[in-house]
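Pilot study result, target chain (107 residues):
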Amino acid sequence: MSKYLGYIENAEFGRASDVGFMFGLMLVITVPEHGIANFNHYMVNTSENCKNKEAVDKAILDYWRTIYALLDDAKVSSVSELKGVPVEVDCDTKINNFRILTEVIPK
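Predicted structure:
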């Protein structure tokens, strides 16, 4: 797995426009010289047909905690302010994970 430096190009919180029952944080991450990728790992299936409501509730709570930590690391108060925040990306053929580059965020 390779690590690259990039930045969050866009951040939205809400329903996915193409799949309305998916809800959560949608990020577009740009890695210069390598391209742009969507990172939608913080999405939850909220369909009425979802069989395990307890698992959905747990996933929502876990994602909210993760999103809160992302905002805290980036020193911002809303998802829209994540735009432009520098990140380190772990990827092979797709983005597997990323972290906010807290060492370059002003205190």
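One observation from the pilot: The chain has one domain: 2-102. A full batch analysis is planned for the follow-on phase.
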